[in-house]
Amino acid sequence: MKDLYIIVEGETELEFVNRLLIPYFIQRGLNTHIQGLMITMKGGGHGFNNIKHFKNTIAPILFYDSQPVITTMIDHYGINSEDKLPNYENCIKEIDVEKRIQCMEKSLETVVKTIVQNYPYFIPNIIRHEMETVLFANPNEGFDLEKEAIKTAVLKVYSQFSSIEDINSTPEGAPSKRLIKIYEDNGEKYKKGADAIDIAELTGMEAILAKCPRLKTWIEKIIKLVIA
């Protein structure tokens, strides 16, 4: 069984890995080393602001003798330049969102190949939704401890989309932006890290995977490769 490293953009994604994904993987029988790593920026801080930062973060792991499985959690709507991802200009020409993301994932794989030509255990994952999309998977459970008005507003957003993975349709309409406004409208402040993970834990991984087929496919691919 191979070790697993999940490269993420920031603290919220890292908390999601630590508090939800790792316990889920263990439950599924992945008795191995699993670790989330934030992309480190030059001079301090974290985030996917430049492809060089990503390369600096992943490069050491690619040369581990154990050849671990390495994957990513990077929000596709945060990718907006060639500096962040080579071939970006070609990828955004794709009108279909899924094809655009597949192009970005292929481009990320190409970047890894500039470090190690044929690394067999890298799974590029550009998430269709930002992490907050999973919070809409089961609002009745996830927002059970919030004000009733907040839960009602979240349910209204939930009802407007046939798939919650489509909620992140524009940067302005991203799930996190919607939640910030919902909380503000009800006299509360949405705390991106703490609130998000608490709500995700109340929602539960099974509900999240049932509503996020792309996320589920990624997780199943990880499990298959780790235990191969």
In short:
The chain is α/β, with parallel strands linked by helices and 228 residues long. It contains ten helices and five strands; from the N terminus they run βαβαβααββαααααα.
Question: What secondary-structure arrangement, pairings included, does this model have?
Answer:
Blueprint: E1 4-8, H1 11-27, E2 34-38, H2 51-62, E3 69-75, H3 88-91, H4 97-113, E4 122-123, E5 126-127, H5 139-142, H6 148-159, H7 175-185, H8 194-203, H9 205-211, H10 213-227
Parallel strand pairs: 1-2, 1-3, 3-4, 3-5
Helix pairs in contact: 1-8
Radius of gyration: 18 Å
Number of domains: 2
CATH C-level label of the largest domain: Alpha Beta
Poorly predicted ranges (pLDDT <50, ≥5 residues)? Answer: none
Helical stretch tally: 10
Helix content: 40-55%
Which fold name is given in CATH as the topology of the largest domain?
Rossmann fold
What letter string, H or E per element, gives the SSE order?
A: EHEHEHHEEHHHHHH
Total count of strands? 5
Q: Span between N and C termini?
A: 7 Å
Largest sheet: 5 strands, parallel
The fraction of residues assigned to DSSP E strands is 5-15%
Quaternary structure type: single chain
CATH architecture of the largest domain: 3-Layer(aba) Sandwich
**Mean pLDDT over all positions:** 92
